[in-house]
Design brief:
alpha/beta; Rossmann fold
């Protein structure tokens, strides 16, 4: 295994729904040169990736079993404050958006999301 410094930085996508992960990966493939796309199904898997490499961008769902997006955002920001966190949710409310920002999310995107909005945020985070 290569030392952490040698690993390519990763854009991490976390959602417990495989179809959402696939859609996001397809969307990001064309704009992620220089970054590895890592798609996982749980918050704990994100923390394992974060321990191995630089993660400049995390896109996470809010509602997941085990660790929800709010808890994950707090843990990621504590471990890697410069990681941009984008939270998505099918249960978007102004209250949830405020809670996400308090937890450390830089952006909150309601589902179903607009691809152009996701792309613009990713470009801002990476370039």
């Amino acid at each position: 295994m290569a030392p952490p410094a040698a690993l390519m930085p990763a854009i991490v996508l976390v959602d417990d729904e495989p179809d959402v992960r696939i859609i996001l990966c397809r969307l990001l493939m064309s704009i992620s040169d220089g970054y590895e796309l890592v798609a996982v199904g749980s918050g704990s898997a994100v923390l394992a990736v974060l321990a191995e490499r630089s993660v400049p961008l995390l896109i996470t769902d809010y509602n997941m079993p085990g660790m929800n997006g709010l808890d994950l955002a707090q843990k990621v920001k504590a471990a890697a404050p410069t990681t941009m966190v984008v939270m998505t949710s099918a249960y978007a409310t102004p209250e949830l958006e405020k809670r996400a920002q308090t937890a450390g999310a830089d952006y909150f995107i309601p589902k179903p999301f607009v691809f152009e909005q996701v792309e613009a945020i990713v470009r801002e985070a990476l370039f």
